[in-house]
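User: Um, any thoughts?
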Amino acid sequence: MKQESHIVGFACAFGGEDELLGTMLDNLHVLPSQKGKGIGRKLVRDIACWCDRDYPNKGLYLWVFEQNLPARRFYDRLGGVVVGEANRSAPDGTTVKKIRYAWKNIIELIVAAQ
C-alpha cells in the first residue's frame, strides 16, 4: 500500500495453500508510524476479497508469534479464531511459540475489516 509515493505496508498471501484452511496470509506489515490508521484492515480486506474471488468457499489463515500481542488483538478484532499452535526455532537458537488464526468465512472477514 502506498501513501504519497511511500510504501507504508504490504501483505503476501499464498492462495489455496492449505486444503482445509485455504489461503495462507504469510506476511502483513505496516510501518510503526502508520499503525492505527486502517492500513492493516485495508490490506486484510484486499487479501480477503482476492480470496473470495479466486478461491471461493475457502478460508484464510495465518501464523503469529504468541508474544506479538498487538497483532493478536488485531486478529481477534477481525474475528480470527485460534485453531492451533506450534513451536519454532528462532535465529538465536531459542524456541518461540506461534499461534495459528483462521477465518472459515471470508465474507465475514471482509465485513469485519470494513
